[in-house]
C-alpha cells in the first residue's frame, strides 16, 4: 500500500491571482517524501547547530566564571595567609609592648621607691626575614578552614589583649606623667656648678659669734658671679635684699616645698615670675651676713627647714670641704 502511494504522482496547482496563468507541476510520492525528509533534516541540523552554539556560549561563560572564581579564591587564600602572618606580627609587637609596659612600671616604681614589677619575657623573640624554602604542595579546603579558624581566634585574643594593654598603658602613662610632674617640682639638682660645701645643715659654730648655732641650709662656696639655678619648677615668692640674707630669692614649688637662695651678687628674677628647673635666677655673691662668696641654699618642707643633702642627686659625687665661709 505504501509503495503504491510512493509510485503515485501528485499534481500541485499554483494560482497567483484570478487574471494570472495557473502554474501546474507534478511530483511523485518518492520526490515528495525526499523533500519532506530533507526539510526535516535541515530543520534538525539548524536546531542542533543553534543548540550547540547556545551550549558553547554557556560553557564558555561557565569556564570564564570558574576561572574568575578560582582566581578570586587564590587571591583570598593569599590574603588569608598574609592576614595570618600579620596576626603573628601583631602578636609579636603586643608581646614587645607588654615588655615595654612592664619596664615602664619597673622604672616608675624604682624612681618612686615602690615595688618593682618584673618585666615579662616577650614570646616569639625571633625576628622574621625574607629567607624561605621547603616543599610546595597545594592548599586543601581543610587547611584553609583551619587557618581561618586559627586566624579568627588570634584576632579575637588580640582584641582582648589590646583592650587590656591599652588600659594598662594609659594608667602607666598617667603615673609616668604624675611622676614627671613630681620630678620637675622637686628640688633635685644642685643650684650651682660648684660642689664645694663650706658648711653643712645642722648645728655648727657660728663664724661671727663663735658659738654653737643652728644652720638652716647648705653653704656652697664658689666664685663671684657664678650662675645660680632654680632647683625645680616653681613661682618666685620674693626677690630682694635684707640685712641678713643680702640679695635672696625664695621659690615655691608646691606640695609644701620651698627653696631659698641667699647672698646673691645679682638677682635675675622678680616676684611672681615662673621659673623652670635649671633656669638662671641670679649670680653668686657675698651680700648680707657673709664671710665670702658662697650660696646659702635652704629647703623648707611645710614651713620647716630640712637638710638639702637628700634632695641633691649627685650629692655624693665631687663633694669637697674647706674652712667655713658662711653666714
From TrEMBL:
Residues 214-308 form the M23ase beta-sheet core domain. Residues 73-110 form a coiled coil. The chain crosses the membrane at residues 30-56. Residues 111-143, 306-327 are annotated as: Disordered. Keywords: Coiled coil, Membrane, Transmembrane, Transmembrane helix. Residues 119-137 have a biased composition (Low complexity). It comes from the Bacteria. The keyword Cytoplasm does not apply. One of its GO terms (molecular function) is metalloendopeptidase activity. This is M23 family metallopeptidase. It comes from Paenibacillus ginsengarvi.
Amino acid at each position: 500500500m505504501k509503495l503504491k502511494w510512493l509510485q503515485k504522482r501528485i499534481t500541485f496547482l499554483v494560482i497567483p491571482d484570478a487574471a494570472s496563468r495557473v502554474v501546474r507541476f507534478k511530483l511523485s510520492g518518492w520526490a515528495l517524501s525526499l523533500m519532506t525528509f530533507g526539510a526535516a533534516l535541515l530543520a534538525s541540523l539548524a536546531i542542533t547547530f543553534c543548540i550547540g552554539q547556545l551550549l558553547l556560549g554557556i560553557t564558555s561563560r561557565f569556564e570564564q566564571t570558574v576561572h574568575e572564581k578560582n582566581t578570586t579564591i587564590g587571591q583570598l587564600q593569599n590574603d588569608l595567609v598574609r592576614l595570618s602572618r600579620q596576626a603573628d606580627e601583631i602578636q609579636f609587637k603586643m608581646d614587645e609592648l607588654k615588655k615595654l609596659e612592664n619596664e615602664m612600671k619597673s622604672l616608675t616604681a624604682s624612681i618612686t621607691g615602690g615595688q618593682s614589677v618584673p618585666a615579662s619575657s616577650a614570646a616569639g623573640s625571633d625576628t622574621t626575614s625574607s629567607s624561605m624554602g621547603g616543599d610546595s604542595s597545594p592548599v586543601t579546603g581543610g587547611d584553609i578552614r583551619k587557618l581561618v579558624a586559627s586566624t579568627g581566634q588570634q584576632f579575637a585574643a588580640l582584641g582582648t589583649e589590646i583592650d587590656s594593654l591599652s588600659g594598662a598603658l594609659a594608667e602607666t602613662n598617667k603615673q609616668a606623667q604624675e611622676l614627671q610632674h613630681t620630678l620637675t617640682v622637686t628640688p633635685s639638682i644642685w643650684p650651682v656648678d660648684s660642689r664645694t660645701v663650706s658648711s653643712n645643715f645642722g648645728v655648727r659654730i657660728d663664724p661671727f659669734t663663735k658659738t654653737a648655732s643652728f644652720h638652716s641650709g647648705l653653704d656652697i662656696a664658689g666664685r663671684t658671679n657664678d650662675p645660680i639655678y632654680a632647683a625645680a619648677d616653681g613661682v618666685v615668692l620674693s626677690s630682694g635684699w635684707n640685712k641678713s640674707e643680702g640679695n635672696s630669692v625664695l621659690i615655691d614649688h608646691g606640695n609644701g616645698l620651698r627653696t631659698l637662695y641667699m647672698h646673691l651678687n645679682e638677682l635675675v628674677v622678680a616676684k611672681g615670675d615662673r621659673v623652670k628647673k635649671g633656669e638662671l635666677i641670679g649670680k653668686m655673691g657675698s651680700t648680707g651676713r657673709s664671710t665670702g662668696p658662697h650660696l646659702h641654699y635652704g629647703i623648707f618642707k611645710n614651713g620647716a627647714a630640712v637638710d638639702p643633702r637628700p634632695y641633691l642627686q649627685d650629692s655624693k659625687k665631687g663633694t669637697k670641704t674647706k674652712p667655713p665661709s658662711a653666714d
